[in-house]
């Protein structure tokens, strides 16, 4: 539905604002010449067998499997996610919701020939790698460009607590001497073998993580590590990966919060191992995203969700932790303040009584949280390879913005109005279009809209965009053909 009322355009009269800034007006000035970090994508995870629920483990019909995949991945009807994060299994068995390892038999020593078993990771009815291989293929077919495979732990026999759960450390890193020896090379070889199995299925893994939340000791797969200890493994892993000829790059360390990751990154830097990393990865749980890390590597927020709240589908109700607007603000601040290049949800779709999924499944019921449409505001309008550009806000109210320029020259400007009144917004500085017949479109999400196209107009380059943003709403404006 195109509702023309919410949108007017100041063609060619250029920067003459049709209202006084004192009337709840907001002016956003875009400067595409001033650029910041690259955008790599929006993403999600279906590890711990959550993916099997997309394929019907809890009663979802095949028609709804398609619908759920579209909701997460489609760039015309869904959130347009382009990054999938998979879990590399470390468990001995795979009842729900464990992830079985490709190496469950303990070798006699770190140098003994390993007994890898890819077929052993079959989840009956859902295929290899505990169901994740099929999801990976389907995701790629629907536009996912980047696969990030992350190990929550090494197999138990490589660790000083002899278990893939309950924390413990990799044998052979600083301070961890095990009677069984140094297992760093064996762990590197094991991760490599996992990628080779995917390669044989025609799937290239772009990034590999060898830790997940290495600051937490928990009763599921987990492995502790300091920055120095991560560097001790990188010293072995990086040359192993390089020698393999695979293009997979290393991610580290998926700290459970921003500061937990910052301290590990600093440890890696002090140990001189930063150059071995492809990306720096952090979660948002234990400490919130804040000032950027001091690194030239792209930084990704790779896991975050509301784990504690009751199931929340609303965009805005009272500003609580699971609402769509709350997450729109988290995502926007991550790009604008914390310099991330990608933002990943914990669970995409799943049957959960917590509030962590963007799409909640129950039997054949599919309930979409407004959080999904917060992800769509970037996933649908910014393509991997875009760069964030300067967007300066002058506002009498609570309006925040990010702007990105896509490789084709088009620009997407995400504007959140956190205030309880409608905002009049003027966007200036959009100059860089090469099309003779540009369009400007606006996509609205709030309690009544799900990334709905609310206006579409001819637009001439250099002219201002003027619009109204309803209270407690988000609009992304896009230019392009
Ligand atoms: C828009 O509203 C949200 C939710 O109330 C708030 O968090 C945000 O800071 C507001 N932004 C602006 C620019 O008013
Ligand atoms: C949308 O997805 C399709 C299918 O993957 C892809 O070919 C196309 O380039 C995408 N469009 C944008 C704007 O990202
Ligand atoms: C593993 O090493 C850590 C750090 O030295 C130590 O605290 C822990 O007790 C060790 N675990 C076992 C089971 O020995
Ligand atoms: C590993 O720890 C888990 C969780 O505490 C426990 O259930 C399991 O029996 C342990 N496995 C082994 C091989 O000790
Ligand atoms: C991790 O937690 C387990 C269970 O509470 C405990 O036995 C173990 O000592 C802890 N390990 C470390 C290294 O803290
Ligand atoms: C933001 O990240 C990029 C790498 O993606 C880096 O080159 C740049 O220096 C960072 N900027 C800030 C302010 O940290
Ligand atoms: C918001 O409303 C929910 C549902 O009624 C309630 O559980 C929660 O405590 C409220 N949160 C705040 C911050 O008021
Ligand atoms: C999904 O929504 C329906 C209808 O509102 C509700 O009855 C059901 O409990 C919801 N399911 C979940 C998993 O929240
Ligand atoms: C979803 O999970 C709940 C809680 O674990 C469970 O009771 C329910 O049966 C599950 N739904 C389906 C359809 O499996
Ligand atoms: C903007 O919105 C946020 C969240 O609702 C609020 O905390 C903040 O006070 C608001 N700021 C202004 C200037 O209204």
TrEMBL record:
The residue ranges crossing the membrane are none
Q: Where is the signal peptide?
A: 1-18
Q: List each copy of the Endo-beta-1,6-galactanase-like domain by range.
A: 28-259
Q: Which Pfam families match?
A: Glyco_hydr_30_2, Glyco_hydro_30C
Q: Which UniProt keywords apply?
A: Hydrolase, Signal
Claim: Hydrolase is one of the keywords in the record: yes
Query: Domain Glycosyl hydrolase family 30 beta sandwich spans what residues?
Result: 385-477
Query: From what superkingdom does this record's organism come?
Result: Eukaryota
**Which family would the database say this protein is a member of?**
Belongs to the glycosyl hydrolase 30 family.
Write down what this protein is called.
Glycosyl hydrolase family 30 beta sandwich domain-containing protein
Species in which this protein is naturally found? Zasmidium cellare
């Amino acid at each position: 539905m195109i509702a023309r009322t919410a949108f007017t355009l100041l063609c060619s009269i250029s920067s003459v604002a049709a209202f006084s800034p004192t009337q709840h007006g907001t002016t956003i000035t875009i400067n595409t010449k001033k650029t910041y970090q690259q955008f790599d994508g929006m993403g999600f995870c279906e590890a711990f067998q959550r993916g099997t629920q997309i394929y019907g483990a809890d009663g979802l019909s095949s028609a709804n499997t398609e619908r759920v995949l579209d909701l997460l991945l489609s760039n015309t009807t869904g959130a347009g996610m382009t990054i999938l994060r998979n879990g590399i299994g470390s468990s001995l068995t795979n009842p729900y919701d464990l992830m079985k390892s490709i190496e469950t038999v303990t070798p006699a020593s770190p140098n003994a020939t390993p007994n890898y078993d890819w077929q052993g990771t079959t989840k009956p009815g859902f295929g290899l790698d505990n169901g994740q291989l099929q999801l990976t293929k389907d995701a790629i077919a629907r536009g996912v460009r980047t696969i990030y495979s992350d190990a929550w732990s090494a197999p138990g026999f490589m660790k000083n607590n002899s278990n893939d759960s309950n924390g413990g450390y990799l044998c052979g890193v600083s301070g961890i001497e095990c009677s069984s020896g140094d297992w760093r090379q064996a762990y590197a070889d094991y991760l490599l073998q996992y990628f080779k199995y995917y390669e044989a299925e025609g799937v290239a893994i772009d990034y590999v993580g060898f830790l997940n939340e290495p600051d937490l000791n928990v009763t599921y797969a987990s492995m502790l590590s300091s920055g120095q200890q991560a560097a001790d493994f990188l010293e072995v892993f990086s040359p192993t990966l390089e020698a393999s000829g695979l293009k997979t790059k290393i991610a580290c360390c998926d700290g459970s919060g921003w500061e937990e990751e910052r301290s590990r990154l600093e440890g890696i830097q002090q140990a001189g191992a930063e150059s071995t990393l492809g990306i720096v990865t952090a979660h948002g749980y234990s400490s919130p995203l804040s000032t950027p890390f001091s690194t030239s590597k792209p930084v990704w927020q790779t896991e975050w969700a509301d784990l504690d709240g009751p199931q929340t589908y609303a965009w805005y109700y009272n500003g609580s932790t699971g609402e769509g607007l709350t997450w729109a603000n988290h995502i926007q601040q991550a790009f604008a303040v914390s310099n991330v290049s990608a933002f990943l949800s914990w669970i995409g779709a799943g049957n959960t009584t917590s509030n962590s999924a963007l799409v909640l499944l129950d039997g054949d019921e599919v309930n979409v949280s407004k959080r999904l449409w917060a992800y769509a505001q970037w996933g649908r309008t910014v393509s991997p390879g875009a760069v964030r550009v300067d967007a300066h806000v002058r506002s009498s109210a609570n309006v925040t913005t990010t702007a990105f320029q896509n490789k084709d020259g088009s620009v997407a400007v995400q504007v959140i109005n956190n205030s309880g009144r409608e905002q009049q917004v003027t966007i200036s500085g959009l100059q860089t279009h090469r099309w003779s017949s540009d369009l400007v479109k606006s996509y609205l999400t709030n309690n009544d809209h799900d990334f709905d196209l609310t206006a579409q107009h001819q637009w001439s380059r250099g002219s201002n965009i003027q619009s109204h943003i309803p209270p407690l709403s988000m609009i992304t404006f896009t230019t392009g053909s």
